[in-house]
Design a protein that fits this description.
This protein has 2 domains: about 130 residues, P-loop containing nucleotide triphosphate hydrolases (Rossmann fold, 3-Layer(aba) Sandwich), CATH 3.40.50.300; about 70 residues, no CATH class. It contains 10 helices and 10 strands. Helix 5 packs antiparallel against helix 6. It starts with 9 loop residues before the first strand and ends in a 19-residue tail after the last helix. The relative contact order is 0.16. The chain binds adenosine-5'-triphosphate.
Length: about 260
């Protein structure tokens, strides 16, 4: 794409979203647009509504008001598996792999879920190209026959990403993919995100500022269920409102979520 090309069209459009849990408004008039092909990071203090937003997009939580359009199709009111089949995939903060199944069996199951039962019954056994490609991209080919329960924490996170890729999503929503990872694992995950973002739209919830500085392009900051601001890492870190909402808070990483010295250049 050249510099003069028009902006990519929106793949995800969230408009006027409101989510209420037992009288508590967790998301309060949230608007968010993610263009096709973007790698977007979502940050915000604990309770800002990041996971709730993902839950609504993926059909787990029903909003009190608002629209969620995926390539122009309304997602609100659709069931979770339908949304997966439309091309929206997510990871959770907690792992969802089957520990006793092998790595390849987990990825195969995820791929089969996307097909739905009638098509699944017609598919012959064996590792499909989609499954093999998902293993390859996440660097898990050599571990394909290992029980998932034997994987390291980082490998497990990559397995979840492989399971997502096997569902052939257009939009991937990743909830804190590097939480608990070693430095090496974070770096590999960052490279993996950039690689995946070459042919997918990716939204990443992540607190870790060092990780953001290395891999984020556009960052959206949520606070109290709304978008506080949006921009590149330097713009967001320099924004006094962002400093204020993070004041005294620490991110999931080993440094303040928004460091006071504007060292981003
Ligand atoms: N099922 C629920 N029932 C009641 N309140 C909920 C529920 N889910 C989330 N909340 C509340 O909604 C608000 C937003 O929560 P959410 O988990 O979306 O925040 P978050 O930005 O993802 O935070 P964190 O960084 O801590 O994961 C919080 O105050 C939370 O306590």
């Amino acid at each position: 794409m050249t510099g003069t090309a028009p902006a990519a069209r929106p793949l995800l459009e969230v408009r006027g979203l409101r989510v209420v849990f037992d009288g508590f408004t967790a998301v309060d008039g949230l608007d968010l647009t993610v263009a096709e092909g973007e790698l977007r990071f979502l940050i915000g203090p604990n309770g800002a509504g990041k996971t709730t937003l993902i839950d609504v997009v993926t059909g787990l939580t029903r909003p009190a008001a608002g629209q969620v359009l995926f390539d122009g199709t309304e997602l609100v009111g659709r069931r979770e598996h339908r949304i997966v089949r439309l091309g929206v995939g997510r990871t959770f903060q907690t792992s969802v792999v089957f520990e006793r199944l092998s790595v390849v069996e987990n990825v195969d199951l995820a791929a089969a879920f996307r097909l739905g039962l009638p098509r699944l019954l017609r598919v012959r056994r064996g590792v499909s190209g989609t499954v093999a490609e998902a293993l390859e991209r996440t660097g898990l080919t050599a571990l394909a026959d290992r029980p998932a329960g034997e994987l390291s924490h980082g490998q497990r996170q990559w397995l979840e990403i492989a399971m997502l890729l096997a569902q052939r999503p257009r939009l991937l929503l990743l909830d804190e993919p590097v939480a608990g990872m070693s430095r090496d694992e974070r770096e590999r995950t960052g490279e993996l995100l950039l690689e995946i973002a070459r042919d997918h739209t990716v939204v990443v919830v992540e607190h870790d500022m060092a990780f953001l500085r290395s891999y984020a392009r556009t960052v959206t900051v949520l606070h109290e269920g709304r978008v506080l601001t949006e921009g590149d890492v330097a713009q967001v870190q320099a924004d006094p409102r962002v400093r204020e909402v993070y004041l005294g808070r620490r991110g999931a990483g080993d440094e303040p979520a928004v460091p006071a010295g504007g060292e981003v250049g």
